[in-house]
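Appendix B. Raw example, untouched.
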Amino acid sequence: MAQERVLITCPPLLRSLEGFRPLFEARGIAITAPTVVQTLSVPELVKLVPEHDGWIIGDDPANREVFTAGRAGRLRAAVKWGVGVDNVDFAACRDLGIPIVNTPHMFGGEVADVAVGYVIALARHTFEIDRGVREGKWPKPVGISLAGKQVALIGFGDIGRNVARRLLAAGMRITAYDPAFAPDATMPAVEWAIWPSRVEEADFIVVTSALTPSSRHMVNGEALGRAKPGVRIVNVARGPIIDERALERALGSGQVSAAALDVFEEEPLPAGSPLRGHPACIFGSHNGSNTIDAVERTSRLAIDKLFEFLGLR
């Protein structure tokens, strides 16, 4: 019988792979660990995936073409590392008989911590102060207090609820936008509305939702035009939820006073993006979930699920 082979294309797991390698070696599994900055391309995946029995997926374009090629080869099962599944064609897997799952509810606290850090940074201009001090200046920009400010929270799943708990503790008021909204008895103060109703009340728009056909470009020119002048925006979810062209225009006009973006419509952020030149923007690298603790528990879960699919537990 041929040796089992597993392909790993998830950067956080790849970076910590040495700690998990004994789990694979104990089962006689060979690992393929390509160099991945963010994702591999479809042609690269079409070539690699069929050579493997299992695949731990990152943010790669895991589409029908890739899975069809995999099924024609050795691919028997896959696991999407992490929570977001917008890059994975689950319907194709179902049609092709490829078992697949993701690893939900892994990063709520970690991503929420980053979101709150961005809220504070935008409120108190900490990024502007840091840049000024590095340049030999001593800036004193006037910020705003968090207590009493209104947050439009797009998404009220695991991440959104963790964000809400933290912002409520800071004395902020929250309106949540989520078609699956369910009241949380631990947070009765969180109100619910249909987007973009009441967006004109918001001092902050914080995006934590999944990317779906209905959430794509939810934060668009129309919504931003209705928002309170000077609104601040945080996105720790998926880039395409915000129409970046509309955001660029709103930043230019001052309708949006500042934005903190951990994710973008195209990743990495293109060198020519006008957002790069805007002084009131803070950027991340789609890294909100990346802590030692979260990577370890998610990687263990992903590996365990794949072993179960392959009958190797």
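End of appendix B.
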